[in-house]
Amino acid sequence: SYVLTQPPSVSVAPGQTARIACGGNNIGSRSVHWHQQKPGQAPVLVIYFDKKWPSGIPERFSGSNSGNTATLTISRVEAGDEADYYCQVWDSSSDHWVFGGGTKLTVL
Amino acid sequence: EVQLVETGGGLVQPGGSLRLSCAASGFNVINNYMSWVRQAPGKGLEWVSVIYSGGTTYYAASVKGRVTISRDISKNTVYLQMDNLRAEDTAVYYCVRDPVLDGGVYIEAHWGQGTLVNVSS
């Protein structure tokens, strides 16, 4: 089955840029979706189809996808961005959704 | 406004059954891919099951044979029937409108608030 690998944690100072990687075999050939989950809350979609913005999501969030790595980039990081972030793809070989293990973003 | 409201969670003994419901508003479930995703305490997200707009269903290996996803068009509701529950099924279960490209239209994902299933004796 398809596996997505994320770093367990990323730390960044306020105002800086955070980059969260999601690795998978030839992930660039798949569409990647990113979800943000704050403590005690349900996840929220922040980027879909690699780089599209859902309604209500600021353009400080952006996505890219090429080769074996997809990346969620958060510019001008704010304290309110502190959360767990999950990448997601559809695995057509098994007809399953696959999630990465999640990355905890800490704002220093 | 799109909204998903899950109900039906609770405490159940190992080997027991529960049926989760997901009432949708702001869109029609029959025209969308709908999934259930769960999250065990302190763990990450785990996809459980999906029902396509055409009615085809798929299941994660961890629940296959014990779980059935279905929908009621008249109630615009998706269900997850869970049987022979195990301790490892303890989790918050989320209903999700899946992100898909349908006929040239990009559909955003939406999540419900979740319902807690606790399998314990």
Description:
The complex is a heterodimer of chains A (about 110) and B (about 120). With about 110 residues, chain A is mainly beta. Chain A has no helices and 9 strands. Chain A has strands spanning about 10, 20-25, 35, 45, 60-65, 70-75, 85-90, 95-100, 105. Chain A is globular. The model of chain B has no long low-confidence stretch (mean pLDDT about 95). Chain B is built from no helices and 13 strands. The interface of A and B includes residues 52 and 84 of A.
Set out the fold topology.
The complex is a heterodimer of chains A (108) and B (121).
Chain A: E1 9-12, E2 18-23, E3 33-37, E4 44-47, E5 61-66, E6 69-74, E7 83-91, E8 96-99, E9 103-107
Parallel strand pairs in A: 1-9
Antiparallel strand pairs in A: 2-6, 3-4, 3-7, 5-6, 7-8, 7-9
Chain B: E1 3-7, E2 10-12, E3 18-25, E4 34-39, E5 45-51, E6 57-59, E7 67-72, E8 77-82, E9 91-97, E10 100-102, E11 105-107, E12 110-111, E13 115-119
Shape of chain A: globular
Shape of chain B: elongated
**What is the strand tally of chain A?**
9
Low-confidence stretches of chain B: none
Q: Provide the succession of SSEs of chain B.
A: EEEEEEEEEEEEE
H-E string of chain A: EEEEEEEEE
Protein structure class of chain A: mainly beta
Task: Say what oligomer this is.
Answer: heterodimer
Mean pLDDT of chain A: 97
- Give me the Rg of chain A, rounded: 13 Å
Report the C-alpha radius of gyration of chain B, rounded: 14 Å
Number of helices of chain B: 0
End-to-end distance of chain B: 40 Å
Quote the average pLDDT of chain B.
96
Q: Helix share of residues of chain A? A: under 10%
